[in-house]
Design a protein that fits this description.
This protein is mainly α and 82 residues long. It has 4 helices and no strands. It has one domain (16-79). The chain starts with 17 loop residues before the first helix and ends with a helix.
């Protein structure tokens, strides 16, 4: 889908890659709101999975990792003999 919108000239500090920055901002907000997954973010931004981790970190988005997540991983590794 193609979307077009107007941005007031006084808000545009640079036109360098403005369409890409707008797409990234939109996709990031959709991820934060839970409307898309990280896989969909990869597809939307044409990034490899490993690149998405860096993209998210550079925008202050960190995956929530709970003690329960850690314990589940520990149990799984123990079952695998690791």
């Amino acid at each position: 889908m193609e979307v077009t919108f107007q941005i007031p000239d006084d808000l545009v500090t640079t036109t360098d890659d403005l369409p890409r920055r707008a797409l990234e901002a939109f996709a990031l907000e959709e991820l934060r709101a839970g409307r898309i997954t990280e896989v969909q973010l990869c597809d939307t931004l044409s990034l490899a999975r490993i690149q998405v981790d860096g993209f998210l970190k550079s925008h202050g988005v960190f995956e929530e990792y709970t003690l329960e997540d850690f314990e589940e991983e520990r149990r799984s590794l123990k079952e695998l003999g690791m």
